[in-house]
Amino acid sequence: MEDLEKKLRSVRITGGIIYLINIFFSASIYTALESLGLAKGSFIYSLLFAVPLFSAILNGIILGLIAAQLKDAVAYGIVKSVMAIVVYSAYVSFFILPKYIVLMAFIIMALSAIQIGVLYMYKKIQKQIFG
């Protein structure tokens, strides 16, 4: 049992670090997009370019849910990570963006894929501990 608790703690710490890095990159993309002024021309573009900020906020909320060890954190985290991969893939596909923003989008997609794996490990360990 003690071994599982150590695994759970290390998965939570790893997940926390990954979520914090993802928050940083999401906020950075939002700041970069805002500084380019791409969202000023249209209401739709404004909504689309607000997605990274919303993503950063959701990452913070999910990080809090994981820290509180709520089982719904896994479901919310997986849905959020899949949505992030889809949205950032669309950004890269449909918009002509500077290379540094594209690089940050790929980093966020990779972090989101890692988050899914961490959440599955978290769920598996929680299930072993709590049944």
List the keywords:
131 residues, mainly alpha
**How many β-strands, per DSSP?**
0
Report the structural category.
Answer: mainly alpha
Query: End-to-end span in angstroms?
Result: 12 Å
Globally, the shape reads elongated
Pick out the low-confidence regions: none
Radius of gyration: 16 Å
On the 0-100 scale, what is the average pLDDT? 84
Short description:
The chain is an all-alpha fold and 131 residues long. The chain has 4 helices and no strands.
Describe the structure.
- The radius of gyration is 16 Å and the shape is elongated.
- It has helices at residues 2-36, 43-67, 72-94, 99-130.
- The chain is built from four helices and no strands.
- The longest helix is centred in the N-terminal third of the chain and has 35 residues, at 2-36.
- It is an all-alpha fold and 131 residues long.
Topology summary:
Blueprint: H1 2-36, H2 43-67, H3 72-94, H4 99-130
Helix pairs in contact: 1-2, 1-4, 2-3, 3-4
